[in-house]
Amino acid sequence: MAATVEAASTFAQLHAGPDVLVLANAWDAASARVVEKAGAKAIATSSAAVAWAHGYADGHDLPISRLVVTIEEIARAVRVPISADAEAGYADDPVEVQENIAALVRAGAVGINLEDGHDPSALHCAKIAAAREGAKGAGVALFINARVDVFLKKLVPPEDAVEEAIKRGRAAKAAGASGLFVPGAVKPDEIAAIAKGVDLPLNVLAFPGLPPVAELAKLGVRRLSAGALIGRVALAAARDAAQTFLAQGDSAALFAAAGASVDYNALFKG
Fold first, then answer.
1. The model scores a pTM over 0.85
2. 24 near 38, Cβ under 8 Å?
């Protein structure tokens, strides 16, 4: 699905509740089509899995041009809205971030993740505002999911994490964010406090100890992301199958590991 007004509206509506939007993050056209076929209402990329698929480390090592091409390829393969994990915009300068996000929108993205990492909140907000301008120039009401890494990167002492996440979330909203992503928040009371404290759809990350999706909905969560986990599952399966085949040369075991026969040619024609 191209980055259209309709696709952007559909993606935004998926965050309106009462159900939680569950995103099984993809990393290329093939994984995106498989995820779509599995029942996904939207496709979100994982920056880590995309980087690994191209032989790069996560964390701005991937050239933005590779991500743009990846989004173009996914847009050709699927019919549901697409959100691109744009890390921290692949630039420190908000002007460059604006250009990068505009390129992703032209490629087919109607949503992005934009993280603060170890950057000051003020810089994160400047990038959010720049991304909004970039999308506006491309003619799309972009869903900007502002990721704050207070919990994930332990930016403040644990007892201050909720307050800091709320503070950054409110600032992100003022800068033009559409949603708030707080990876690493897993305790029900902390999740509920953040959801109540910031008037934006709250996104959490699949994590050990995270409550089930039905409970997350009651806590105020509107989006649950797999992050890089499905990419890690795929790579682990490939590693294990390769190691076994290289060590044993067992064709029958390899066929068994491949699972039920799937007509992938038909999948990518449809």
1. yes
2. yes
